Structure prediction request, 1659 residues.
Amino acid sequence: MSDAAGDGEGGFVERYSTRALFAGTTVAAVVALLVAGLLFPDSLAGTLAAVLTSENTLAAALRLSVPIAFAALGGIFAEKSGVINIGLEGLLIISAFGAVYVTEVTGGVWVGFVAGVVASTLLAALFAVVTIKFRADQIIAGLAVWLIALGLAPFASQVIYNSPNTPTVQTMGSIAVPVLEDLPFFGALFSASPTVYLLFLAVFCSWYVFERTAFGRWIRASGENPKALDTAGVSVTHVRYAAVIISGVLAGMGGAALSLDLGQFTGNGPTMVNGKGFIAIVAYLFGNYNPVGAFLSTMLFAGLDAVQTVLQLQGIGVPRQLIRITPFVVVIIVLALVGRTQLPEAAGDHYETEE
Amino acid sequence: MASAVHLDGITKRFPGVVANDDVDLEVERGTVHALLGENGAGKTTLMNVLYGLYEPTSGEVRLDGEPQAFRSPRDAIDAGIGMIHQHFMLVDPMTVTENITLGNEPRKWGGLAVDRAGAREAVVELADRYGFDVDPDARIEDVSVGEQQRVEILKALYRGADVLILDEPTAVLTPQEVDELFDVLDELTAQGKTIIFITHKLGEAMRAADDITVLRDGEKVGAVDANATSQEELAELMVGREVLLDVDHGAADAGDVVAAVSDVVVEDDRDVRAVDGVSFEVRAGEVFGIAGVDGNGQSELVEAVTGLQEVDAGEIRFRGEDVTSTSRRERIDSGMAYIPEDRQERGLVMEFDLVENGLLGSQHGREFAPNGRIDWGDTRAHADAIIDEYDVRPPNADAEAHSLSGGNQQKFIVGREFERDPELVVASHPTRGVDVGSIEFIHERLLELRQQGVAILLVSSKLEEVQGLSDRLAVVYEGEFIDVVDPDETTEEELGLLMAGERPGDGDGGGGGFETASEAEPAPSTNADAADGEEA
Amino acid sequence: MSPADRARKALSRLVEASATERILISSAALVLSVLIGAVLVLVAGRMTSCTAGEAVYYFGTGFCYDPVVVFDRLFLGALGDPLSGGWSPNGQFAITLRETTLLLFTGLSVALAFRAGIFNIGTQGQMVVGALATALGVLWASAFVSGLVGTVVLIPFGLLVGSVFGGLYGAIPGVLKAYADANEVITTIMLNFVATGVALYLVSGVFKDPNSAANQTVPLPEFAQFPSLFFGARQDFSIVALGFGLVAIAALYYVLEHTAFGYDVRTSGVQPEAAEYGGVDSKRTIVASLALSGALAGIAGAMYVMMILGTFQTGIPDYGFDGITVSILAGNNPLGVGVAALLFGVLKSGTTVVQFATDVPPQLVGVLRGLIILFVAMPEFFRLLAKGLPGQWSESEAVATDGGVAVDQGGETDE
Amino acid sequence: SGGPSDGENSSDGSDGSDGSDGSDGSDGSDGESGPAANIGMVYATGGLGDGSFNDQAQQGALQAEEELGISFRESQPDEVSQFSTFQQQFAESSDPNYDLVCCIGFLQADSLTDTASSYPDQDFMIVDSAVDADNVASYVFQEHEGSYLAGLMASLLTTRSFSVGAGSTTGDSTNVGFVGGVESDLIQKFQAGFESGVSAGSDDIDVSVNYTGSFNDPAAGREAANAMYNSGADIVYHAAGNTGTGVFQAAQEQGRFAIGVDRDQSVTRPDYADVILASMVKRVDTAVYNAIDATVDDEFPGGSNVALGLDSDGVELVFGDQLGSEIPQEILDEVATAREDIIAGDTDVPSEP
Ligand SMILES: Nc1ncnc2c1ncn2[C@@H]1O[C@H](COP(=O)(O)OP(=O)(O)OP(=O)(O)O)[C@@H](O)[C@H]1O
Ligand SMILES: Nc1ncnc2c1ncn2[C@@H]1O[C@H](COP(=O)(O)OP(=O)(O)OP(=O)(O)O)[C@@H](O)[C@H]1O
Ligand SMILES: [Mg+2]
Ligand SMILES: [Mg+2]
Prediction:
C-alpha cells in the first residue's frame, strides 16, 4: 500500500501543477519586468516597475483589499460547508450602512463597527434559516439577500437622512507600528488602518480553523460529503448554520471597514459596495477556497486596481477608459489559463437526515 | 444470555412504502450474521434503524437485552454500533486519518487544535491491532476501494464499535479481497465483536456467516443456520419461487469482426494511463467479456469505445471504419448501443419522465425527430413499448426516472438500448444492483441478441456473470489485458488470481490488501460448482 | 398520437401539481412581500416627521406614510389607473409595457442559459454590446433607406445586428467555459465591466455625437425607430416591440420543448453526464446556449436603442440584472417569464408613480423585489405554513432553478 | 466687488424682486392661500445627497420656498429613461398645476426637447444644456472659467512652501491633480479650464488627471488623490460629485490640499474644511432660484439661453471658510486680476482639454 502514498503525493502535485506553473510564470514575468525596468527606467517597463515596487501601491492595494478579502473569507466558510453564499454583496451593503448609522448616532467608531457586523450577521442568519431550514435554493436566496440589502440600506438612509448618502462620520484612522513602518516597501504593511490588521488576523484565524481545528474539518466534510459527517455523529445542520453565521460576521467586518474607512455610506445606484461582494466570490474561487489564496487573489485584483489608478496619471498613451478595465480583463485571462475551479462536492445541495 | 442485538417487531414506513414490516432479528455476540434479500427487500432500511438513522415506525431495538431509543447515529455510536454503508461515507479530499477520526478528533490546547500526531498514532495503533494495512496519510480519493473499506471499518472501530454492520461489503472486491475480508471478520469475532453483513449473494452468506436471516418485500421470511442450509433453499426463500441457478448460453456462432480495438491508450483526468495499450476484437454473434476489479481501466476503455472519452493512442474500428475520433453522436447513429455502468448519472436523466428518457440518444435521429423537430407522439409510443416489453414498473411513461427503483431504471435503459437495432452492444455492469429476477431477464435478453448476430462487449466485476455469459473472456489489471481465456475452461480461482494481477505462471502471492491474508493461500471455496450461480 | 391525446397531455401538464403550486407560491410570495413592505412603510413613517394633518392613523397611532396609498400607487398607478376612468393608452400603462418588453428579453436570456445549466450574469454586458452595435449599425444603414421602407428594413436589421453582437459577446464566456473550464459566473461578471468600459471609450471618443454633451451616438432618424401604434407615443413604447417579445416567448418555448436542440440544452442543463451519453456535444451546447442567451440580451439592447432612447448612451439601466430576478421568479420557464416580466414591469414603472405621489423613498420597491424573490425561493416555508392551515396543499415538490448550480433536492442519493 | 465672494451666504436673490411676499414665513405652513407657485424638480441621476450638483439645485428651490413662498415637489430618476416620465408627470399634473418644472443636468436635454413640444403650455427650465423651445429657459455655466481660477491658484500655491490648517505644500512640486467622475464633455470643461489656469500660473507645473468612472465612489476618489499626492502633487481639484469625498479624505491623511466643486464644500463638508483651499462654486441654485423667481413674477424667460460665467457670478472661486483667510494676498490679487481679464475678454479660457 505504500504506493498509495506515492499516488497521493503524485496526485497532489498533479492537482496543483497548473496553478503552480501559473504562479511560477507570473513570478518570472514580474521579475523580468522589474529587471527591464531597472535597466530602462524611462521605458514603459520602467514606469510599471516603479509603480509595482512603490510602497504606495502596496498601501493602496491593502486598503482596496479589506472589504473584498473579508467578504471572500466569509464566502469560503459558507461555501466550504456546502452553502453557496452569493449574497455577500448584500451583507457588505447592510453592514456598511449599519456601521455608519450607529457611529453617527453613538459617536463611537468601534461601536459602529460592531453594529455593522451585527447587522450583517442578522441578515446572514436569515439567509441560513431560509436555505437550511426552509431548503430554499441557495442561489436564489443569495440573490434575494443582495436585493433586499440593496433596497433596504438606501431606503433607511433616505428615511433617516433624507438622502441615499449618509453624512460624514468619524473614521478609523490608522495605526503605525514604530520602526517597522519605515521598512522599504513592506512598511506599508505596518502603517495602515486597524481594519487591515484585523484582516491579517482574520486570514490567519480562518486558515487556522480550516487546517488545525476539528470544526474546520467538520465544515469541510459538511461541504464535501455531509452524510459522512452526519454518520460520524456531527450535526450537518449545526455546522452549516455556524459556517453561514461566521460568513455573516466576516462580511460584516468587511462592510463596516469599507464605510468607516471613508466615514460615509453612499447609497446611490449599486451603493458604495459596487460589486465588491461579487469580486469577493471571484477571489475565493480563484484562491481555491484557501483563505491565504483568497487573500492573495484579492491582493492581485486590488493591486491591479491600484496600478491602473497610478497608470492613469502617467499618461502612457492608453485611453483611461481602457486602463480602468485592466483588472477585469486580467482576471478573465488568468482564469482562461488556470481554468477549473473545483466546487465542494455537495455545495448547493440541501441536506436532510431523514426522508 | 441475551443476544448482542435484538430487533423486535421493527416496522418502518415511508410514504407509500412499507420498507420493513414487523421484522425480528437476533444476533449472538461474537458471531457473523448475514442479512439476505433481493433488491428493495428492506435490508438497508432495517440496518439504518439499528444505526439510528431512521426512527422505526414501531418496534424496538435492544442491545444486550437493554431497550434503546436511538435518535441519531450519535446515540447508536455511543451504544457501540458501527456501520459501513453501501456507499462509503468518506470525505474524498481528506486523509485516511482525518476520515477515521472525523467527529471524534483528539484535541490539544484545550480543544483549540486537533492533535494531529495523536490522531495518526491512534490510527496506526488500531490498524496494527487488527492487522489492517492502511496508509494513514493518503487521501481517500487516491486509495483503492478495498482500502477505503478498511478505512470505514477502522472508523467504526475507532469509535469503539462492538457491533459492526456491513452493507454489501463484497460488491466491490476481488474474490481474493473477499477472502481477506472474511478472514478479518473472523479475526474481529474472535476478539469479541459482533458482525452483521448484508448481501444478496447466497454463497457468501453461507461461507462467512454463522446465521442467516432472509428478508423479502420488507418481511422476514426465515432465519437459518448457515451450516444447515443450501443455496437452493436460500434462493427460494429470497425470491419466493424456485430459481434457475445456471445460465446455459450454448455455443458461439461468431461471424465477422464488428468492433476492433488496437493498442488503445486512455489517460484519465490526472494524465495517468488508465488504459494502457489494449487490443481485442468483438465478432458478430459473440459475447466478449472483460473481467476485473473495479478501477482497473474498464470504465475508461468502455467510454473510449463508446465515444465518451478521448483516446490518447491506438485505434478503434467499428464495422470496418475508423471511429477513433468520431463523436459520440455519430457512434450512436451508426449502431452502437451502450448500457452504462452508472445509470443514475449517465444512463437516465433523473428529472425527466420516461417519455423523454426514451428519446435520449435518438433526439437527432430520423425516427423521432425528423428535421430537428421532436415528434412527441412517436416518442411516447416508443417509451410505452419499452415499458411493456421490458416489464418496467410502474408501467407509467409519465413517471420521472428518479421515482423508479434501480432495477426498473436499469430495465428501461436496457430496453432503450436493445431497441436501437444495434450492431454492437456495450454492456457495462448491466446487472449491478439489480435483483435476481431482473438479472435473469437481462441475461436472457443479452443472449437473445447474441443469437441474432449482435456483437456484445460485456464488462462486469461479477465473476459469475462474465464467466457465465462470455464466449471469450479477457481479464484486465491496471489498464492491461493480463490474459484472454476460454471462460468454460477456467476456474474461478484462476480468474481471481488473474484479476489480482497474477500473470499466468506467476507464483508469488499477495496482491495487497489485508495483511492477515498475505500469507494465506486462496481460501478453498466450499462449493466451487455453485459458484457460477452464486448471484442468481 | 391524436390531437385529442396531445391536448389532454398538454392540459395535464398545465394542471400538474408543481405548476399549480408554483403559481400559488408566487402569489403568496407577492402577498407576503407586500405585507412586510407595508410594515416597513409604517415603521419608516414613524421615523420621519410630518405635521399632524399629513399623518394617517392606524391602530390609534399616527404614521407619516400611508401603505395603502403606496401600494395603490404602485400597482394601480402602474396600470394607468384603470379604475379611475381616466385610462389612456398613452399613460403610465404604456411605460409598464415598455419595461415589460425589455424585461421579457433579458428574462428569456437568463432563462435559456439557466436551462442549459449556465448562470449567465452577463446579460447586462451582452445587452450593452447589442445596444451599441445596433445604434452604430442602424446609423450606418439609415443612409441607404428612409421613410416607411426604412422602418420596415431597419428595425429587423437593427434587431439582427443587436442579436448577432450580443450573441458573439455571450459566446465568449461560453467558449471560455467549454474549452478552458473557466467559471462562467466569474467571467460574465468581469465581462460586464469590460463591456461598459469599452462602450464608454467608444462613445466618448470615435463614435460620439459631436452635438451632444452626453456620451452618446448620433440619434437615430425617426424612421429607424419602433413605430408607436395605438400605444404610448410619448412613453417610448411600441406595441410592435411587445409583439416581438411575445413571439420570442413562444419561439423559445417551442425550441426548448419541441426541438432536438432544446432537448440537448435541457438535458445538459439538468444532467450534463447523461447529455453527453445521449450524444450531446456538451462544449458546443454550452457555446450555443450562451450565444443564444447573449443574442436575446442583444435584442433587449437593440430595443432599448430603437424604442426607448433613440440613441446609444452610456449608463444602460440594469435590465440585465433584473432579468435574473424575472427568470428566477418564472422558474426559468419561457411562459412564466412573460408573467414575471409583467410583474416586474409593474414594479419598475410603479416606482416612479410612488415617488411622484408620495414621500416614501422609492428604494422601497427594491426591498419588495428582494422579498418576493426570497419567498419564491422557499416553497418549503409555504408548505409548512399550509400544513398549519386547514385544507392542505399538495405534497409534491416545487421546482427551483433548473440547473445553473447544483440544486439537488436532497443530500441523499439512494440506490 | 471683484474677486470671488467669500462664502456660502453670498448675496443671492439680490437680483429680481426680493421677497415678494416674504411674510409667509416657515415652510410647511398650510396657509389658506396657496403657494406663490408650484415647482417641480427633476434631479439628475445620482439624486440628492451628492453633496454637490443636485444638492446645490435643491438649495435654490429651498431658498425660493423660504423667500418667495413657493412650494416644490422633487423626483429623483435613477435612469435616463425616467427623465421623460417625470417631466411628463409634472406637465400632466393638474392637482396641483405646476408652474415650472426644473430639469437638472444635461442628460435631460433630449427628453426635454420632446416633452417641451408635447406640452407647449408648460414652462420648463434646464440646467447645463440648451434646449431650443419657447417654453424652456436654458442655463449653462462657464465651468472652465471658474476652474481656470482654481488652476491658477493651485499652481501659484504649489510652487511655494505654504502651510495652513491640516495641509501644506512644498515649493519643489511639479504637479497638481485633477480627479474627474465619468468622462464627459461637461467634466472635461472643468479639466480644460483647470489645466489652462495651472499653466498660466507656472509653465513648470503639470496636471495629473484621473477619472474614476463614477460620481459616487469615494474609495476610488481617495485612491486617485492618494496616487497624485504620492507623486508629489500638493493640491487636487475634483469634479467628481460624491467621489470627491475620497479626495478630501486623502488630502487630510496626507496633509495636503484639495479644491472642492459645485458648492462651497468647506461649509457643506465642515469635517474637511481644514484641507479645502477653495471651491469652484457653480451657482445652480441661482439658476433655479432665478427661474422660479421669474415665474412667480410672470416674467418667465422662455426660449432664453443664459450662459452663466464669472461675469454674472454664475461660477466663482470661493475660498475656504477656514483656510481662505490664510492664503497670501498676492495670490488673491493675481486670481482677482485673472477674473477681471476673463470677464473683460482679455483671457480666453479653452473649454476642451
Ligand atoms: N428514504 C426513503 N424514502 C422512501 N422510500 C425508501 C427510502 N429508503 C428506502 N425506501 C424504500 O424502502 C424499500 C427498501 O429499501 P432498502 O434500501 O432497505 O432495500 P435493500 O434491501 O437495501 O435493497 P438493495 O439490495 O438494493 O440495497 C424500497 O422499496 C425503497 O424504495
Ligand atoms: N448539440 C450538439 N451535440 C452534438 N453534436 C452536435 C450538436 N450540434 C451540432 N452537432 C454536430 O454538428 C452536425 C450538424 O449539426 P445539425 O444540428 O445541423 O444536425 P444535423 O446532422 O443536420 O441533424 P438534423 O438536421 O437531423 O437535426 C451534426 O452532425 C453533429 O455532429
Ligand atoms: Mg441496500
Ligand atoms: Mg440540421
User: Anything to note?
Assistant: Residues 5-239 of chain B form a domain with the Rossmann fold fold (CATH 3.40.50.300). Residues B 327, 329, 364, 372; C 260, 264, 279-281, 284-285 surround adenosine-5'-triphosphate (ligand 2) (CB under 6 Å).
